[in-house]
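Protein modeling request. Please complete all fields; requests missing the sequence field cannot be processed.
Requester role: graduate student
Desired output: 3D structure, token encoding
Chains: 1
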Amino acid sequence: MRTITTSAGTPVETDGDVLAVIETISRDLARRTDLDYSFEEVDREFEHLISQLTTEELRAYLKESLFMSFNRFENERLMGLVRKANKAEDADGM
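Delivered output (94 residues):
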């Protein structure tokens, strides 16, 4: 496993852990800008990290990102079903 760095010099291990990358970028940007950062700053930080990754590492991060997105999609879908069921239950109970 290698280590890459954010533009602020914070080390990030290339272990495929997307959440760790996001947390590191968030901490760096928050420290540097007092929580007042733009989409462009986040984009530049991602570009900086991506430029340091190999094709194999990019594939690992893409796969992890897709899993995370899929899980979030499924959780939101299920929460929608639960809300709908609760509304129907409330309407029946009135």
